[in-house]
Amino acid sequence: MSASFDTISMIGLGYIGLPTAAMFASRRKKVIGVDINRHAVETINAGRIHIIEPELDGIVQKAVNEGFLRATTQPEPADAFLIAVPTPFKDGHVPDVSYVQAAAESIAPVLRAGNLVILESTSPVGTTEQLVQWLAAARPDLSFPTDGASHVDVNVAYCPERVLPGQVVRELVDNDRIIGGLTPECARRASALYRIFVQGELLVTNARTAEMCKLTENAYRDVNIAFANELSLICDKLDINVWELIKLSNRHPRVKILQPGPGVGGHCIAVDPWFIVDATPEQARLIRVAREVNDGKPHWVEKKVEAAVEDLCSGGNLARSDVRIACFGLAFKPDIDDLRESPAVEIACALARKYPQRVIAVEPNVDSAPKALQSAGVALSTLEQAVAAAHVLVLLVDHRQFKETVPAVGKHQRLIDTKGIWG
Ligand code: SAJ
């Protein structure tokens, strides 16, 4: 079976699919990007991008202009297909793999002998085997790697992405990559495909281990952040500065505690551990509690703000209806403009519900507030104006701009610093 891939198709042109498609295209491979989102397809075909990621716009523009990248809403025949579609969870934190199934069913009609299919979406263990079942059901004329069969028409592997939003372009190339083949031949072909642009090591294993590896990496980080967040609650009770405590503890040669914050946001770390909990609820006790600790942190911050308001108003000099609250930072982590799945937005919205028309927000990385905040009546402001106007200052994201400008907090003001940079 040939290992050459002249035409590569990427199913799903989101935060992972588009950069990956662009990397193949930058190596002068013909790439067909497929997405059900017509706006995304049109934007890409115009040489522009519909997502926010440094350096990506120039790479996509060049790839489209030179004819190596083209987007469409309907799958077309190709040598290799990569699937990078969302895998959210449903009610009860149950994984929803319906987008993977839809992607499988959409490529099935154009599959042909010699193809390689790779699943990149973060997925519950067993999804790659399930993917083969969907493909085989749709194409009984082709053979797939079921029951360990090695000589098959279509090879299938699971290869998770591990890139950090904000540095996707560099990490796609440099990071080591897990290649989970359903058979050794599947892994060999998948390795050959990624070798086109990956400079990191390609580490071969089976599909189930690769699926679990991705979930493990994000659950590991979630548990570690939960440890830091739990410490922040404990220190608050015991009147200890958690930031100093962590700094001192980290001077032990084998201790490396992460940083507390307002909660865990983003599209991965707050989701993926649930896939482990769903599969093994009795065993995954620590992983579940870590999720609960991190999910509970925004509520704890809200309660701290309420206590600060009560404190300010208890003297009778300030009416509750006159209290102004400023939230500093809305992004889900520092120095990015991605406000989706952000605990800071969750906190600002909750505060705006509790104190209507009394909440302002400062986010140096965006021009306008997201709809959720606008409809909650939260206005954007500058750092200086917000510091001057607010009675309660709530630092939610340790953006560079906030680290550079530490405001003086007046006697009539209260500071809730969830990142320990203004304390
Ligand atoms: N956070 C803290 N304290 C910390 C570190 C992070 O509160 O010490 C918070 C952040 O503010 C943010 C959340 O955690 O709200 C997640 O941020 P992150 O930088 O830890 O991770 P993501 O979601 O941007 O990217 C993660 C990465 N996974 C790991 O580091 C194990 C990335 O490599 C994955 O590719 C990505 O998830 C993904 O797509 O799965």
The beta-strand count equals 15
Q: What is the chain-wise order of helices and strands?
A: EHEHHEEEEHEHEHEHEHHHHEHEHEHEHE
Bound molecules: ligand SAJ
- Summed up, the domain count is 2
And the CATH topology of the largest domain?
A: Rossmann fold
Question: What do you see in this structure?
Answer:
It is elongated, with a radius of gyration of 24 Å. It starts with 6 loop residues before the first strand and ends in a 6-residue tail after the last strand. The model has no long low-confidence stretch (mean pLDDT 95). Strands 3-2-1-4-7-8-9-10 form an 8-stranded mixed sheet, with helices on both faces. Strands 13-12-11-14-15 form a 5-stranded parallel sheet, with helices on both faces. The chain contains 15 helices and 15 strands. The chain has 2 domains: 7-200, NAD(P)-binding Rossmann-like Domain (Rossmann fold), CATH 3.40.50.720; 219-417, Rossmann fold. It has 423 residues and is α/β, with parallel strands linked by helices. β11, α12 (343-354) and β12 (359-362) form a beta-alpha-beta unit. It is 41% helix and 14% strand. It has helices spanning 17-26, 38-45, 56-65, 98-107, 127-138, 168-174, 184-194, 207-238, 242-249, 272-279, 285-313, 343-354, 371-375, 383-389, 400-404; strands at residues 7-11, 30-34, 69-72, 80-83, 89-90, 94-95, 116-119, 155-158, 177-181, 202-206, 325-328, 359-362, 379-380, 392-395, 414-417. Ligand SAJ binds at residues 122, 161-165, 217-218, 221, 225, 258-259, 261, 264-266, 268-269, 332-333. Residues 122, 161-165, 217-218, 221, 225, 258-259, 261, 264-266, 268-269, 332-333 line the site of ligand SAJ.
